[in-house]
Amino acid sequence: MSDTYISDLTFDKSSIIQKGEYENCIFLACNFSELDLSDFKFIDCLFQECNLSLALLNKTVFREVTFKNCKLIGLRFESCHSFGLSFTFEECQLTNSSFYLLKIKNTAFKYSQLKEVDFSESDLTNALFEGCDLMMATFEHTILEKADFRTSFNYILDPEINKLKGAKFSTLGLSGFLTKYNIEIE
User: Fold this and answer.
1) Which CATH number does the domain housing residue 142 bear?
2) CA gyration radius for the chain?
3) Distance between CA atoms of residues 136 and 134, nearest Å
4) Which of 4, 102, 110, 181 could pair with 130 as two cysteines, CB 3.0-4.6 Å apart?
5) For the chain, how many structural domains are there in total?
6) Predicted model pTM
C-alpha cells in the first residue's frame, strides 16, 4: 500500500484520488463507479452524492464513514478490511449489495433502498433500519438482536433461523414473519 496520507481535504467530481489513507475528508459528487478501491483507507470521512457502484473493495478500510445520498449498487462489503469496519448510510441506494458474514453492530441505515441486499450470517445487533425498503433482502442466520425495523417495510424475516431477541417491529411489518407460510393476512 502507498504511504500517501491525506487529511482534512474536500474532493469533488473533478478530483482524482490515489491509493492511500484519507482521514476526515469529504467527497462530494465523486464518481468511483467500477474503480478499484482495494487497499484504500477511509477514516472519519463523508461521501455525499457519490457513486461507488460496482467498485472493488478488497481490503478497503471504512472506519466511521458516512454515506449520504450515495449510489452503492452491487458492492461486496464483505471484501472490506473487517477490523473497525463502521459506517452509516443515509438516503442511499444499496441494491444488490452484500454484507455477508460481517460484524457491523450499531450500523444505521436511514431512508435507504436495501433491495436484494444480502445480510446473511451477519451481526446487526442494535442496527437501525429507519424508513428503509428491504424488498427481497436476505436475512438468513443473521443476528438482529435489538435491531429497530419499526419504520422500514417490505422485509421478510424468518424468526426460526434469525436471532431477533429485543428487536423492534411495527404491527404493519409483522406480515413479513409469516410469508413462508403462504397465508393471507387482511
Assistant:
1) 2.160.20.80
2) 17
3) 6
4) 110
5) 1
6) 0.92
Contact 37, 18 (CB under 8 A): no
pLDDT digits (tens, 9 = 90+) for 139-176: 999 999 999 999 999 999 898 999 999 999 987 766 66
Residues with Cβ within 8 Å of 64's Cβ and at least 6 positions away in sequence, in order, are 43, 44, 45, 86, 87
Q: Give the residue numbers spanning the domain of 110.
A: 98-186
Name residue, grid cell 438482529. Answer: 144
Residue 56 forms part of a structural domain: no
- Can you tell me the distance from the alpha carbon of 183 to that of 186, in angstroms, rounded to the nearest whole number? 10
Q: Which residue pairs from 135-141 have beta carbons closer than 8 angstroms and sit at least 24 positions apart in sequence? A: none
**Which amino acid does the sequence have at 157?**
L
How many Å from the N-terminal Cα to the C-terminal Cα in the chain?
57
Q: How far apart are CA 185 and CA 175, in angstroms?
A: 7
Tell me if residue 173 falls in helix, strand or coil: helix
Phi, psi dihedrals of residue 172, rounded to the nearest 5° = -65, -25
